[in-house]
Amino acid sequence: MPMSEAFPIAAAHAVLLAVFFFLTAQPLLGILQQETYSGRSMWRWFYKKGNVLRKRYSLLTLALVLIAALLSLCFSFAGAEIARLVATAGCAGMCVLFAYSFRHALKVPFRYTNRAKRLSVCYVFFTAAILFGVDVGLYFAAEAIATPVARALLRAVPLSLAPLAFPAILAAANRAMKLYENPRNRRFLARAKKMLAESDCIKVGITGSFAKTSVKHFAAKMLSAKYRVIATPASFNTPIGIARCVAKGGLDCDIFLAEMGARQTGDIAELCDMVCPKYAVVTGICAQHLETFGSLATIVREKGVLAKRAEKVVLGATANSLAKEGALVEGREFSATDIVCTAEGTDFELHIGENQAHIHTPLLGRHAAEDIALAAALCVMLGMAFEDVVAAVPSLEPVPHRLEHIEVNAVHILDDSYNSNVMGARDAVETLKLFSGKKFVVTPGLVELGELEEKENAAIGATLAGLDGVILVGETLILSVRQGYLAAGGDDKKLKIVPTLKKAQEALAAEIAPGDAVLFLNDLPDKYL
Fold this sequence. Notes:
This protein is of the alpha/beta class. Helix content is 51%, strand content 14%. It folds into three domains: 179 residues, no CATH class; 197 residues, Mur-like, catalytic domain (UDP-N-acetylmuramoyl-L-alanine:D-glutamate ligase); 125 residues, Mur ligase, C-terminal domain (Protein-Tyrosine Phosphatase, Chain A). Helix 1 packs parallel to helix 5, helix 16 packs parallel to helix 17 and helix 17 crosses helix 18. The chain is globular, with a radius of gyration of 27 Å. The two termini are 47 Å apart.
């Protein structure tokens, strides 16, 4: 085929393949999005030992190579170009099959935000450009080969190795797009920061290793009885998340509650620079995100940044170590004492300064009392009367997926799928044991615990001994959970290991009956599957 005809065909072929490869790259794009577009984090995750997606891409590559080789051989009699087109069609079909089958395993699908769309176009362009360059090189190499079969194989098989390069291509496209995205994000954040600085509303920062969203949710509900309140939605606790909240809803309020998350040193300082909180809540501190922080002491220092920046601070019981870091602590003492947990709710005595009241809430678990006490202390610190705070407690509702009690066909479902810390996990298991009937738990383990991951997951496994059924999901951490469960005397016959949440639900359906209870403990983000 003349060069003038081969190049346009090679270009069209490269674009077509790039589009089909893009379909198979959706999981990796989703991971990059979950990693807040950090190419380094995505790269580190992809090459982590035992990564499931890397294994799947290896199998996809093997399948594509076999398909390309087989079809090239079968159609080599028609010429290298025809054989290549047939092989491409077969590979495209395999890509579609892969994309469709893997789609069901993703719990957090790739979201087509405007940034994601721009990155997708750039990724397809980079992939097509690389494929075109390789294809042109293969064209010249094939011209030097006289054997039709060898020529057909050379023209088709090498391109089927592309899935092995997906992480590198995506990282390159992501880096290129940051030349546009970073300045754009800085302008977006600057506008939000200016709006916050110009607003007369009281700014409150809420951080901690756990319970940030719950305390924010409870405080917003209580404060709404007296003030106009805006709280960052769901788990929006990054600079971009807070900026989106400000840009979308404005700051027409008396109090602005900003949840502040951190995965590495400097995150809280960045959020404080943006929000400038006058008041703060540090819910508690544990080994969550130890993987990225490196040590518990580093986590304490990072959370302490908010405590130092604010004028008045409410500290949870497990955050008292911040006092040693020079944090300012609100003078009034508060606590939740005489906590009694049942399957119907939680009773406790709420103390704030000299005030005391008996509280009953349908919210489940010991942590519900502690979270309500933290929120109540914040409300009193912001000017609410103790009596008004107590009157607002009955209106509190559980935060979705935080030990949320749902009853379906007389089966008690405890949805604690957003829990990812050790203390909350133990509390959730203890709450499950309060129910009558058979008791089951479904969990993939806990993540981001660094060097403590195996130890803490084994400890969680030990708490599951005595339950009527334990279903472990996935491949990442379940061995440690299983070992802890068996070491504590758990019955191996009551333990099942399944690959996906869907399979766990199918296993449950075969055993669970009206009156039984099941705890869904943590639901790992896709990046841990």
